Amino acid sequence: MSSIIHGPGAATALSTFNPVDSKKLTNLSVRSQRYIVAGSDASKKKSFGSSLTVRHSQKLIPNAAAVATKKEADTSASTGHELLLFEALQEGLEEEMDRDANVCVMGEDVGHYGGSYKVTKGLADKFGDLRVLDTPICENAFTGMAIGAAMTGLRPVIEGMNMGFLLLAFNQISNNCGMLHYTSGGQFTIPVVIRGPGGVGRQLGAEHSQRLESYFQSIPGIQMVACSTPYNAKGLMKAAIRSENPVILFEHVLLYNLKEKIPDEDYICNLEEAEMVRPGEHITILTYSRMRYHVMQAAKTLVNKGYDPEVIDIRSLKPFDLHTIGNSVKKTHRVLIVEECMRTGGIGASLTAAINENFHDYLDAPVMCLSSQDVPTPYAGTLEEWTVVQPAQIVTAVEQLCQ
Amino acid sequence: MALSRLSSRSNTFLKPAITALHSPIRRHVSTDTSPITIETAVPFTSHLCESPSRSVETSSEEILAFFRDMAQMRRMEIAADSLYKAKLIRGFCHLYDGQEALAVGMEAAITKKDAIITSYRDHCTFIGRGGKLVDAFSELMGRKTGCSHGKGGSMHFYKKDASFYGGHGIVGAQIPLGCGLAFAQKYNKDEAVTFVLYGDGAANQGQLFEALNIAALWDLPAILVCENNHYGMGTATWRSAKSPAYFKRGDYVPGLKVDGMDALAVKQACKFAKEHALKNGPIILEMDTYRYHGHSMSDPGSTYRTRDEISGVRQVRDPIERVRKLLLSHDIATEKELKDMEKEIRKEVDDAVAQAKESPVPDSSELFTNMYVKDCGVESFGADRKDLKVTLP
Lengths: 403, 393
Prior knowledge:
The complex is a heterodimer of chains A (403) and B (393). By secondary structure, chain A is of the alpha/beta class. Chain A is globular and about 60 Å long. Chain A contains 14 helices and 14 strands. In chain A, helix 3 packs parallel to helix 9, helix 10 (291-304) packs across helix 14 and helix 11 (322-332) packs across helix 12 (347-359). In chain A, the strands form three sheets. Chain A has a seven-stranded mixed sheet, with helices on both faces. Chain A has a five-stranded mixed sheet with strand order 9-11-10-13-14, with helices on both faces. Helix content of chain A is 33%, strand content 17%. Chain A starts with 21 loop residues before the first helix and ends with a helix. Chain B is an alpha/beta fold. Chain B has helices at 2-14, 60-85, 100-109, 123-128, 133-140, 174-187, 206-217, 237-240, 263-280, 307-317, 319-329, 335-358, and strands at residues 35-39, 45-47, 55-59, 115-117, 194-199, 222-228, 231-232, 235-236, 255-259, 283-288, 379-380, 390-391. The two termini of chain B are 39 Å apart. The interface between A and B is large, with 68 and 68 residues. Chain A: Residues 83-258 form the Transketolase-like pyrimidine-binding domain. Chain A: Keywords: Oxidoreductase, Pyruvate, Thiamine pyrophosphate. Chain A: It catalyses: N(6)-[(R)-lipoyl]-L-lysyl-[protein] + pyruvate + H(+) = N(6)-[(R)-S(8)-acetyldihydrolipoyl]-L-lysyl-[protein] + CO2.
C-alpha cells in the first residue's frame, strides 16, 4: 500500500515546499534512507530532505474559494446552518452542478424519485433530465458510460444505490476508470466520482451490508475517501467532483441522518487528509465512517477511566494520510485501528502494514486492529451486532494496549 | 497527405507523356475528384429500417486513397507479424489484415469530430484516424515514443485529438464506454456520432444489451458496429450464438448487414448510419468481414478453420484486390503504377519500423507517471517495497 511521508496537499503545494522543522525530521530521514532511490522521479528531482516536507499546519484547500478556519464544524461560529448528512451531500452536489455545467449525476432512481437516500432530491427538477439521469438497472453499463463520458471532459457523479451493487461494475472501475489515464500515456483523464452508501446497516442482510473499500483499495489510479459527518461529507463531495482523478466516496447507510451545523461559505475538504477528532496522549485510535461514532462512545468511557485517547478519522482510505497518522504515533506510541471492514484484506490490514513499515521504531506495542468478523452479515439483530465492533470491545482493547 | 505525394509524383510522370484525358493507353494516376458511382456487389440487408442505396458516390481520388491506405495497413500488420516472431513485440498482438476495408470505409464517411472506440484489434483503426506508423510501431515495441509512451501496448492505442478512444483489452467493455462518448456528444450538442466497434464474440456480452437499452432510451447518437469475422477466437459464430444475425439482435434498434470486405459498401453504410443516428438514435451495423491471421499471434488460426477457407476468402473477397480491380477497370491507374505504389508503401513501413527500433525505452521514472493527474504527493513502491520508492509529482 502506498504511504505518505509528507503532507500531500494538491497541486498548488508543490511549488511551496517548505522544509520546516527539519530537525524533527532527521530521525525519520536517517531511518528512511534505505527506502529512497534518489532521483527516481524524473520531473521533480528534489533532494532527499525536501521530499520529507512538513505539511503546513493549515489545511490546504486546492481550488476552493473561502475556507473554513476550523476543521471541526461543530463550531462556535454564529453563522452556519444546521442540516442532516444527506442534505449536506445534496448541497455539495448542487453547488458543484451550479458551478460547472459539465457535472451530471447518473444512477438508479436519482432523478424523479429523488434518490433512494434522498441525496439527489430536487436536483432533477432544477437541472433537468439530461443532467440528472435515471438509469435502468445495469451498473456495468452505466458506470462504463459515465467513464466514457468522462474521457471527453464531462464530470459524471455515479451513484450506486448500494455500494455492493458496484461489484457488477468492477471491471469498468478497475480496468477503465483506474487504468485509462495510465495506459493512454496521460491523454485521457477520468474525473468521475463514484459514490453510494455501504457498510452494515440495520439488518439489511448479507448482500446489502458489504464494505467495498477493501475490494477497491488495490486498484491503481483511483482515490478513495469515506465521509462521516455532514461537514466532511459536503467538503469531500465537492473536492471529489473538482478532482481530476477518479474518486470513490464511501458513505454509510446509518449516518445519513446525522445532524450538524456547517459553515455557510464555500469550502472543501482535502481529499488526502485525515481529521483529528480528539487529541490525546495515551493511544492513537484510527477509524473511519461509522466506527468513528463507536470509538467516540468508547472514548467517553475511557476518559472516565482515566485514559486519554487520540482519535483520528482517517477519511482518506487511498492514499493514507501517513503524515497525520505518523505524527500521532510518534506522540502516543500505541495504535488501535477500529474499522468496519472484514479482518482479512481490509483497510485495517493495509493500514497495519503501512504503520508497521514506516513507524515501527515508534511503537511500544503491536498495532491492534479491530475489524468485523469474516462472515457474511447475518440478518438476526443480535448476530449482526456481534459481527461489527462494539464500543465495549474498543474499551477492552485500549485497556489491553495501555497496560 | 498521401494524395498530395501522389499528385506530385504523377506530375513528373505526366511531363514526358501526352495526356489526353481520354487516352485509353496510359491514364495518369488519377487525382480526379469528379464523382463516379459504383454499385456494391452485395445488397444490404436491413432490420427495422430501409436499406441505403447500392449506388455509392465516390471519386477516383477516393478509390485510390482506399487502395493506398489499405495497402499501408496490410503492410503494417505483416510487419508486425514479423516483429512479433522476432520477439520485438511481446504479449498479445491482434492483427487486422483482411478487415482493412472497414477502417478505411468508415473514415471516408465521417469526420474527426465523430468518435471511434474499438477493442484490442486497433492498429489499423489508429492509422485510419491519422495515427503515424512510427508511433504505432514504437508502442508495439514498448518504446518511449509510442502513442501511449510504451505503457499501453498493442491493445491500448489512443489518439485524443482525432477522437479515437482506443484500444481496450477486455471484451465488450468498450461498449458502455462508447455509449458514454455518444452521451457526451449529445450533452454537448456536438452534432457528431460515436462508432462503437466490437466483434462477434463480444456480441454475446450482457453489457452490450444494457448499453444498447440506455442508448435507445436516451436517443444517443451511437452506432454499434459488429465486426463479424465469424470467429470469436477459436469459436465459430454458429457455436457461440443462437442467433448469429447480429444486426437483428438489437430487437427494437434498427440494424443493417453490410459486406465488410467492400470499402465502398462500408462507406455507404456508415454515411447512412451517421444520418440515422443523429436523427433517430442508435443503429447496429453488422460488417461481414474476415481475418486472415488467427485471433492473435499466439493463435495459428488453422485449428478451427481450414487453410482452404482462408485462401478461398483471400482469392474471392480480399478488400485490396477488389479495389485494385476497380482501379484497373475504371482506368484510374495501371498495374505498374499500383505496384510502384505498393513498393513505396513497403519502404515507408520498413522505414517506420527501423525508426521505431532505434527509439529509446521509457526511463524507470516513467513507471509512476500518469498514475494520477497532478499526482498528489503519493509515494509508490516497487515490488520489493524497499527500492524504487518515488514521490509522485
